[in-house]
Design brief:
single chain, 338 residues, alpha/beta, Rossmann fold, 2 domains, 5-stranded parallel beta sheet, 9 strands, 11% strand, binds iron/sulfur cluster
Length: 338
């Protein structure tokens, strides 16, 4: 089959759009979607200048998603003096897994000549995930501990690095899974948090203009750049996982393929299987889920907002929290590591 745009052989067929594309045109469409998302989410602030650039931290794990995101961001903004990019990797302490993925991170950032920082659970928190899994004082899945620790370190170090934005490599499948999980759990507050944390477009800082956020139609809602945490963004969220993998393969990017030995998100796994089946039988399902969910999440954010949530400092570590001791410190207590 030939490419729909030239006479080269197609390397992919996207059932949801009906398109057949050669490697060159496929690569262009991936990059175009990422750049469009950056524009639509208003990620480059109006007041960024070469003299006062905005600093973006990329969460780089060495897996295909974060590697593709890092490559595209660097190629997009390498010549733009308004944007500074720094890659940040986290070593969770998982034997035989993270060392290899960090090697891929080093290779990539060396090739791109990008600043790269690595922090570890061992040095920062006094725990390693292999030991956490063995102890498991809260009787939880490994990812439930690991997610809390990772969020904390990303946030702490994004602040240390004076970041204006934290970017992660979540793809369309990841986001559609999260959306469906929130809907199936009936968790409207979680939808509101999802919107405010990462999927709503950022405002331009001029919040005096226009009506209060809660009074705006859902399609016009934005999220504010807040004082107490670095905003997040997911520029890959319009690109299906398989296309991210194909892009990485066609560009021959350094990445680590193995799965974490502690991965155990059984509900997400079920949703993943369900979505794959739905997408196969009804191409475009992931896109339509996200189109409706974004509007729903914006409405939920309008109802709950996060302006009313009291944010205090954790009694132990000073991190922003709505309770006296933050979740990370609570878990470290349970692990006897605090
Ligand atoms: Fe941590 Fe779970 Fe990811 Fe493994 S799969 S690195 S335990 S969050």
């Amino acid at each position: 089959m030939d490419c729909d745009r030239c006479d080269q052989s197609a390397v992919m067929h996207a059932a949801y759009s009906g398109q057949h594309l050669c490697d060159t045109h496929f690569i262009q469409t991936v990059e175009k979607r990422v750049r469009r998302r950056i524009r639509e989410d208003n990620l480059v602030p109006d007041d960024a200048t070469p003299a006062d650039p905005t600093r973006w931290i990329i969460g780089l794990s060495g897996g295909k998603d974060s590697v593709v995101l890092t490559q595209i961001l660097q190629e997009t903004f390498a010549e733009d003096p308004r944007i500074e990019l720094v890659a940040l990797s986290i070593h969770e302490g998982i034997e035989g897994y993270r060392d290899r993925s960090l090697a891929a991170c080093e290779t990539l950032t060396d090739t791109l000549d990008m600043r790269h920082e690595t922090v570890s659970y061992a040095e920062e928190l006094g725990v390693e995930m292999d030991d956490v899994v063995a102890d498991d004082p809260e009787n939880m899945a490994a990812c439930a501990y690991c997610g809390v620790f990772r969020r904390d370190l990303l946030e702490t170090h994004a602040e240390r690095l004076d970041a204006d934005l934290m970017l992660t490599g979540h793809n369309l499948d990841d986001e559609a899974e999260t959306a469906l999980m929130n809907v199936l759990e009936g968790d409207t507050q979680q939808m509101a948090r999802h919107f405010d944390a990462s999927i709503g477009p950022l405002d331009d800082g001029g919040d005096e203009a226009g009506p209060p956020a809660a009074d705006r139609p859902a399609t016009e809602r934005t999220r504010h750049r807040q004082d107490h945490h670095v905003p997040r963004a997911k520029p890959l969220r319009d690109v299906p996982e398989k296309e991210v993998a194909l892009y990485a393969q066609l560009r021959d990017l350094p990445m680590h393929h193995a799965e974490c030995p502690h991965a155990d998100e059984s509900f997400r796994g079920e949703i993943q299987d369900l979505l794959l089946k739905l997408e196969e039988n009804h191409p475009g399902t992931r896109h339509s889920i996200m189109a409706g969910y974004e509007e729903l999440a914006a409405m939920a954010a309008g109802v709950y907002g996060d302006d009313d949530v009291e944010v205090d400092a954790c009694e132990r570590c000073g991190a922003p929290t709505a309770r006296g001791v933050c979740r990370k410190c609570g878990l470290l207590d349970a692990l006897g590591a605090a």
